Amino acid sequence: MHYLDESHISLLLVQLFVLLATAKILGAICHARGIPALAGEILAGILLGPTILGRLSPVLYHNLFPPEVIQFAMLDTVSWIGVLFLLLSTGFEVNISTVWKQSTAALSIGVVGVVVPIVVGCMVFYWLPAEYWGENANHLTFTLFLATAASITAISIVAKLLHDMNILKSDVGSASLAACAVNDVLGWVVFTMVLALIAKTGAGLWALPGVLVGIILFGAFCITIGSRSVGTLMAMINKSDLPQPGTMLSFMACLGLLCGAITDWIGIHAILGFFLAGIMAGNTSEISEHARSTLSQTIHAIFVPLFFASIGVKVDFLGGAELPVLILFTGVAIGGKFIGAWSGARMAKLSGPDALSVGIVFTPGGAMEIIIGMLALELKLITEGVFVAIVFAALLSSIAVGPLLAWSIRRRKAVDIRPLILHDAVVLELKGPDRWGVIDELCQRVAACVSDVNEADVIRAVRERETVMGTALEKSVAVPHARLDGLRQPVVAFGLSKRGVDWDPPDGLASHYVFLILTPGEDTDLQLQILASIARAMSDSELPYRLMNADNEADVFALLDKTLGIKPKS
User: Fold this and answer.
1) pTM to 2 decimals?
2) Please, what are the domains in the chain?
3) What's the pLDDT tens digit per position in 14-47?
4) CA terminus-to-terminus distance, the chain
5) Are the beta carbons of 208 and 193 closer than 8 angstroms?
6) Which pLDDT belongs to residue 2?
7) Are 399 and 35 in contact (CB under 8 A)?
8) CA distance linking residue 385 with residue 197, whole number of Å
9) Euclidean distance between CA atoms 532 and 415, whole angstroms
10) Which residues have C-beta within 8 Å of that of residue 29, sequence separation ≥ 6?
11) CA-CA distance, 489 to 517, in Å (whole number)?
């Protein structure tokens, strides 16, 4: 029987317009002030939901969001499409090859960064009274869920933060992102166990082994055969006459839907399938960074704001708030992740300053914490008060991480880059046809200028680092770099490619300005600041235009010597 009529559709369109417009406006305001847009999107729902509008004008609130089952289900379906595709784009950030190449640091930071907050969380949350349990929870599932929620790091926020601060391509940035990928995967495995314990398919403890085996097998398939198959299919699509990027977007949507259906059939929420689909796509070179960025921007422009705004429509953040559990969960979520990641970084032999930065990077819960909380609320594993605490911790940690990470970088010793630039390693017109040719060309120049390095060793080190994570930035800048044992002091070489080189950057532009950065193997502080200073100078000045129009190498060197004298605040 057909229950929908035109009034349902008309009201849904009004709901979507009001939620999306308000969420985008408040998100843009927050973003302009250095606050994640996520905060503004949730605030939109709080203003339009029972927390504010429901108290100020109950009639208007109920007219806009009536409690009718059909109307609620329509809005809920649209919002869940948003969260499913958010997990798809989040999976892009999990680069298995980077994790493998950074195995020591990534595994140490990622594993310890999960285990510590889970252990601390279990010890603390075990003592919370049963009044905080949801209807379908027991002591084990409630405690394990809260501890898991407190251990999850928002990899999407971490990636954007490192990108915005121009340190994503640094060794600290790549290690942090790889470790966050390990954190996310392990966190979802533990959450899978909790879901299996309360699965609606009658499950109990007896169903857990079967579900876990199914997920492990499917996950292994996704990151091996699945990833290669996706690459093959995308290569065929790229060679065809099909329109791009539309065909790629359709392919990725179908891949997410298929994987979501498979994980749901296995006995786990479809959300995990979309995450695995994103990992498959993120680990094939046939889908460029620019294409992934296009899909991610589409998802974050429409679907994600609707999901987070709709949360506020469902939950009363004032009436449901429980101050004791709010303080307790926030402390464990932020403090536990910081201590765990910092400890893991020190175990991986990162320096004190780097370990401090990594510990801070791991603190935001962001969208991942909220999504897990929303799932738990819908499965009646937690109460509304506990969910409010999870949202508060996710927002506070996401807002605070930017200023804290900036502080951790500012407190490092200042570096004047000008003396590090090698005059004879400035190239007016690079001849290399691709990134590898350009890297070899600049390495040869450096080896000719610096007596304590070997040309073959320099080339090998820079190439190996480039395979861990590409070093192309936006705005046509690339910053290949490496640490070299035996090098006595840092050096910087520069090359200009007027025709441009394809370096697979996020914005899809060819790379024209290439800085090669080499630092001593034992010096773990300088590389990050050199890279950040170069990125800042190339973004905030007329330097790129002047370099492109320089007449000779002496003029190029003079421009670099004048502009890169910016010192970070001490």
Assistant:
1) 0.78
2) 6-71 (no CATH), 72-410 (1.20.1530.20), 418-563 (3.40.930.10)
3) 999 999 999 999 989 988 887 888 888 889 989 9
4) 70
5) yes
6) 55
7) yes
8) 22
9) 11
10) 40
11) 11
